[in-house]
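Budget justification aside, the reviewers requested a transparent look at the raw inputs and outputs of the sequence design task funded under Objective 1. We therefore reproduce one unedited record. The lines immediately below are the structure tokens for a 344-residue chain.
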């Protein structure tokens, strides 16, 4: 009996550790596999990416695997802990959607990311993906670190793949929201079909892409409403662009980069459309992009306000299927208060 109990416990443990997969059934994405990497410390990638994955699976037929930072002991999502089980899904991925920040994965986990990039797999990068990795010189994959100084892969993944490493903020979170407008001569680009009235709640990031095609400009606003006045001290800067990168194998991969992407940002229909269109474009499916492309949320979506901390007690399997709420709860763990210096 004891052996049977242990065997059953092992099976349950293995089942709960399985990646979150949304299986599409019809649409332009049928037969294509997108892998989403959710792992940042502040901007709620763990809420944004499963919501986007559901849209792309249910509305457009993709198979979507969503991976999270997970506590190996509890199986709960703990953003930013540099443990992401299931990265072997990248071995059979057609697109990687990356929303990571300062990760230092194990050599075993990082090897799958390295292999994907070496074969020139297309990439969509959101917000903190410009500084997705932060590792020490002893790390065998240190070249991907945002601050890597070597001439062979200067400034790491962000610079080499997305077209920009971490530069800095260009607007204050929770005080300055952002209006995003289309570069006038780029209105005909497939990613911009149907995109209008884009306003996001995240504060600005400095946008200085190394190359590529700049599609949009971000204007910081003095306030947290769409009609807030523009900050006259901050002229618009690039916020979304496309480019390609050449892999170690010589293959060329398509890239779409956006400097925004909090779950509150994707409640704006224009921004959500921009990201969904960007995923299709990165896969070479621009012929399927229309101004009326279905982008409605699938299942309940009531995001937590972005900031330090995360929703407690959430496991990836809580997001299985298309009807469970995202996030699973609004019980957000706050950062511990800083200790006061009582010395005089």
């Amino acid at each position: 009996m004891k052996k049977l109990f242990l065997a059953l416990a092992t099976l349950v443990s293995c089942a709960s550790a399985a990646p979150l997969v949304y299986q599409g059934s019809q649409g332009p994405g049928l037969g294509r596999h997108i892998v989403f990497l959710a792992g940042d410390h502040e901007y709620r990638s763990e809420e944004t990416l499963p919501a986007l994955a559901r849209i792309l699976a249910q509305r457009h037929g993709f198979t979507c695997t969503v991976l999270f930072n997970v506590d190996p002991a509890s199986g709960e999502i703990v953003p930013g802990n540099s443990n992401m089980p299931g990265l072997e899904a990248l071995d059979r991925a057609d697109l990687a959607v990356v929303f990571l920040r300062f990760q230092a994965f194990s050599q075993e986990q990082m090897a799958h990311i390295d292999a994907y990039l070496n074969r020139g797999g297309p990439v969509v990068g959101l917000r903190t993906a410009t500084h997705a990795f932060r590792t020490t010189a002893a790390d065998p994959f240190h070249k991907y670190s945002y601050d890597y100084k070597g001439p062979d892969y200067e400034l790491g993944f962000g610079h080499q793949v997305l077209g920009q490493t971490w530069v800095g903020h260009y607007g204050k979170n929770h005080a300055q929201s952002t209006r995003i407008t289309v570069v006038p001569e780029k209105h005909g680009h497939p990613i911009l079909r149907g995109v209008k009235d884009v306003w996001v709640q995240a504060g600005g990031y400095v946008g200085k892409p190394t190359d590529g095609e700049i599609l949009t400009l971000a204007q910081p606003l003095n306030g947290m409403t769409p009609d807030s006045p523009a900050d006259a001290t901050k002229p618009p800067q690039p916020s979304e662009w496309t480019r390609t990168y050449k892999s170690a194998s010589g293959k060329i991969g398509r890239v779409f980069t956006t400097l925004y992407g909090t779950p509150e940002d994707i409640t704006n229909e224009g921004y959500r459309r921009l990201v969904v269109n960007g995923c299709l474009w990165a896969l070479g499916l621009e012929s399927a992009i229309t101004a009326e492309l279905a982008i409605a949320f699938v299942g309940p979506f009531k995001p937590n306000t972005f900031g330090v901390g995360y929703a407690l007690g959430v496991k990836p399997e809580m997001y299985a299927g298309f009807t469970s709420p995202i996030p699973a709860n609004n019980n957000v763990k706050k950062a511990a208060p800083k200790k006061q210096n009582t010395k005089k």
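The longest strand covers residues 237-246. The chain has one domain: 18-168+238-333. Computational costs for records of this kind are itemized in the attached budget.
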